[in-house]
Every structure is written in C-alpha cells, then in structure tokens.
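Running low. Got one?
___
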Amino acid sequence: MMNDTMGKVHFWITFISFNSTFFRDAILGLRGMPRRVAGYTNYNSFADLQPMNQFITYSAFVMAIGQIRS
C-alpha cells in the first residue's frame, strides 16, 4: 500500500502546477501569442508577455519535479 499522505501531496503539487502551466498558456493564446515562436523577445508585441512565460516555465519545472519525487 502506498503512503496516503505522499499521494495527497503528489496530487496537489500536480494539480496546482498543471493548472498554473496550461491555464496561463490558454490566456497567452487569447492574447494573441502564437505557439511556435523561436525567439519571442525579437517581437515588441510579445515583450509584455515575458513574465507570464517565465511563470509558466517555473510551473512546468515544479510539475516535473513533483512527478519525479513521487
């Protein structure tokens, strides 16, 4: 039998980081950012979206670490 507490921690880490990653991705799409841009910093119209992109990256790393640790 697996540890119940670790299962709950794994669930909440995955749930929060998954929604932080992909819900914000949807917001970026609604704001007009294309999915496949090699260097979005080359475009002035996407410069204001950089903080949200960084947050998405950090959330994805947290999700990956949460999957590995469980």
